[in-house]
Amino acid sequence: MSTESQPIIHLTESAAQRIQAQLRQRGHGLGLRVGVKKSGCSGHAYTLDYADRIEADDVVFEQYGATVVVCRAHLPLLDGMTLDFQKQGLNQAYKFLNPNAKAHCGCGESFAV
């Protein structure tokens, strides 16, 4: 995480539309909570959950009318990341374009920094 500027998480328009659609379908929530946990072959895995409230140690990012909430402790691993949502045939998923990830496991579930 850069000490010179505010940490940033980017959203693509496709990801923002997906977040909004999921919240509409769910019927409540403030946004999408993005985090990291120790896991997998490479050391870290992304976590996704609904954000129903903003905690004191959360940082909020808004783009294209959608909100992403990140715990401040996770920002060093996520700073500069772009969250995208892609559809390919019958498959659809969020994609994490993280400049901090130096390696990914073969299954695509975890990353190393």
Notes on the structure:
This protein has a single domain (10-112), classed as Hypothetical Protein Aq_1857, Chain: A (Sandwich). The chain is built from two helices and nine strands. It has helices spanning 13-26, 75-78; strands at residues 10-11, 31-39, 43-51, 58-63, 66-71, 82-88, 91-97, 103-104, 111-112. Strands 3-2-5-4 form a four-stranded mixed beta sheet. The chain has a three-stranded mixed beta sheet with strand order 1-6-7. The radius of gyration is 14 Å and the shape is globular. Residues 9-109 form the Core domain. Pfam families: Fe-S_biosyn (PF01521). Belongs to the HesB/IscA family. This is Iron-sulfur cluster assembly accessory protein.
What is this structure's SSE topology?
Blueprint: E1 10-11, H1 13-26, E2 31-39, E3 43-51, E4 58-63, E5 66-71, H2 75-78, E6 82-88, E7 91-97, E8 103-104, E9 111-112
Parallel strand pairs: 1-6, 2-5
Antiparallel strand pairs: 2-3, 4-5, 6-7, 8-9
Domain Core: 9-109
Protein name: Iron-sulfur cluster assembly accessory protein
InterPro entries: ATAP, ATAP_core_dom, Fe-S_cluster_asmbl/transfer, HesB-like_dom_sf
